[in-house]
Write a structure and sequence with these properties.
Layout lengths: L2 H4 L1 H24 L5 H4 L7 H17 L4 H18 L1 H20 L18 H21 L1
Helix pairs in contact: 2-4, 2-7, 4-5, 4-7, 5-6
């Protein structure tokens, strides 16, 4: 087995990388500015978390079979990660946005107790999660056909 050519792990890393790169591109198109922080940051379109775990599930399904226990484990993991991205982490980002506004109004933007503003872009909209999931599946299928 050629690890670099046939590894599901390499497929997952490629999916993450492409999703993160797309965030930079979409930010450039939207704001007309290159923001390389989007490459390593959480949140945004598409969800790299979703791309990562769905490429894992699709890759394992292709390699081990879609009725295998390994595939079932990967699907469950993917569902938990995507639920967290669109639910819990998104809600935490919304709460951070509100808390930052409260500090700005009441404390006149004094963030000295926390050293900095709370990070607001943590989670994803359902559309961002869905786009990331499709991207991950697409990359896994294309890699499998390419091999």
């Amino acid at each position: 087995m050629n690890f670099w050519k046939e590894s599901v792990l390499v497929t997952c890393i490629m999916s993450w990388f492409i999703a993160q790169l797309l965030k930079v591109v979409f930010t450039l198109v939207k704001s007309k500015k290159i923001d390389f922080r989007r490459f390593i940051g959480a949140g945004g379109m598409p969800s790299s978390h979703s791309a990562f775990v769905t490429s894992l599930a699709a890759g394992i399904g292709i390699e081990e079979g879609f009725s295998s226990s390994e595939f079932a484990i990967c699907v469950v993991l993917a569902m938990v990660v995507m639920y967290d991205a669109a639910g819990v982490r998104r809600a935490a980002g919304q709460q951070a946005r509100i808390l930052n506004k409260l500090v700005e109004r009441w404390e006149k933007a004094d963030f000295s107790d926390t050293d900095k503003r709370l990070k607001e872009l943590l989670g994803h909209t359902p559309k961002e999660v869905f786009a990331g999931a499709l991207l991950g599946i697409l990359i896994a299928v294309v890699r499998h056909l390419w091999l």
